[in-house]
Each structure stands twice: as C-alpha cells, then as structure tokens.
Amino acid sequence: DEPAFTNSWVNFDAAHEGALFYKDLSGVVHIEGLIKDGTLNTSGFTLPVGYRPRAALPFDCLSNNAIGRTNVNADGTVVIAQDSIGSALWFSLNGISFRAA
Hints:
Blueprint: E1 10-11, E2 20-23, E3 28-32, E4 34-36, E5 42-46, E6 57-63, E7 66-72, E8 77-81, E9 91-92, E10 96-99
Antiparallel strand pairs: 1-4, 2-3, 3-10, 4-9, 5-8, 6-7, 7-8
C-alpha cells in the first residue's frame, strides 16, 4: 500500500519507486521507496494497526548520499530522522523490515 504522507513528505519522482509498505505471509512488514522534501525528525506517515512493531525500531538509511535514520514506532509513526549529515533532499526507505506485533 502507498502511505498517506504527513509533514510535507512526498514520493521522489515517477522514475523511482515511491513509498510503499506490505506484510508478507510470515507477518514481516516491509517498507520501501524513495521520498523527499519533508520536515526531518517528524513523522512521514503512519502504518495502520497490524503493520506496527511491538516497540520502537531504528533503521539506518541512505539520505542524500549520507547516513540517515528512520524510526518505526509502536504507534505506527515512521519518523524520518537526521543523523550526522543526512538531509531531506532524498531519503531511501529500502531495506526496512520487521515482524508485526
């Protein structure tokens, strides 16, 4: 599913895979895609009930050719955080996977 973005986050462009999330048959949630232009350290979107982790999980991600962080919280918020020199110019969500609570 494509998330309902918050805090000015949007998909990067039509040439790149936009943000999406899904749950596989084993109950593992996967988040993928390339997003941009939102407010760092705020929620980019919220996962629905059934797609949330038991507790907050941090994930390292590429952010404008630097390292950024995405926090997936137990309330479903997916917070795009800035670490060191990451930026909101573009932010990859690829590789985020966790078991749903």
